[in-house]
Automatic annotation (TrEMBL), chains A, B:
Family annotation (Pfam families): FUR
Keywords: Cytoplasm, DNA-binding, Metal-binding, Repressor, Transcription, Transcription regulation, Zinc
UniProt organism field: candidate division WOR-1 bacterium RIFOXYC2_FULL_41_25
Principal subcellular localisation of the protein: cytoplasm
Membrane-spanning segments: none
Subcellular location(s) of the protein: Cytoplasm
Cofactor dependency: Zn(2+)
InterPro entries: FUR, Fur_C, WH-like_DNA-bd_sf, WH_DNA-bd_sf
Cofactor note: Binds 1 zinc ion per subunit.
CC terms in the record's Gene Ontology section: cytoplasm
Name of the protein this chain belongs to: Transcriptional repressor
Length: 141, 141
DNA sequence: TTTCATGCTTGTAATTATTACATCTTCGTG
DNA sequence: CACGAAGATGTAATAATTACAAGCATGAAA
């Protein structure tokens, strides 16, 4: 928890109870949670926590590059404690979002493509995860 | 228009007026339009067109792999007449979504990663486009 | 050609994710 | 302790999408 606090203060941000808890939640849940999942995970121990605080805080964290954001599942934003570039896999059966072994794309080393400045690279793989493939063996195709 | 009709019928789909217009719109607007953009583009000549029809139709097209879908801009889905694998760039200044020269990632040739079956590969690059970079020369960084 | 069934389209209502905003709280400083 | 700014909260508004019931079109069967 001290480390979390340091991380916040190293960016010049005040380490409020809410900010620390939200950042800690992301650190301890590397599942790329949504706002709703973070809310449900924290509201038990912080009954007055507001979803708006979570939105604001995540936005702030993104601006300070404390976390990273994903839009792999389409309808909702997901968040990641990890900020170093890596790739993601989304299972269309069970909805899990997981990190995959770094696929190194030539573009990541290139700052510009056709004159456009690249700030972020997102590689999203979608399909059916190992787990769901196993379960559906013999079941429905 | 005949080609559009053939394309629909080749997938065993009925070629209704709405379906043809929607598919034609995507063919003629390679800007990765949103549902709203498609609606605004077509409602003039089809005043009774419903957004629901657009949602349903795009869903159907996706299921039959007539088109492809993107979630690069976060809040809304975008659609692409092009179905062969290619990469996209999103400008955080002006919101344009454009195709970029094919970046060939090793994963595209691989059907499985860590036991997960890959059906789709999306490479999204985000940053500031050539145009916006030019405009802001001398202006704000 | 009428009849009928089925698939397609429409409009409205409901849901979900997100943002806007006014108010209340907290916390460091003097 | 008092003040002021930053932070948190709750409610209302928006935006995108889905659910659903009802109407419409089309093509095969009679
Ligand atoms: Mn990750
Ligand atoms: Mn494209
Ligand atoms: Zn799965
Ligand atoms: Zn731009």
């Amino acid at each position: 928890m001290k480390l979390i606090q340091d991380k916040l203060e190293s960016k010049g941000l005040r380490s409020s109870q809410q900010r620390m808890k939200i950042l800690q939640y992301l650190d301890q849940h590397r599942t790329h949670p949504t706002v709703e999942e973070i809310y449900n995970g924290l509201v038990k121990e912080m009954p007055t926590l507001s979803r708006t605080t979570i939105y604001n805080t995540l936005q702030l964290f993104l601006e300070h590059a404390l976390i990273s954001g994903l839009t792999i599942s389409g309808s909702e934003s997901r968040f990641d404690f990890e900020t170093t570039p890596h790739s993601h896999f989304f299972c269309k059966e069970c909805g899990v979002v997981m990190d995959v072994e770094k696929v190194d794309c030539p573009c990541e080393n290139r700052g510009v493509i056709s004159g456009n400045r690249i700030d972020e690279v997102h590689l999203y793989l979608k399909g059916v995860c190992k787990n769901c493939l196993t379960k559906s063996k013999g079941g429905k195709k």
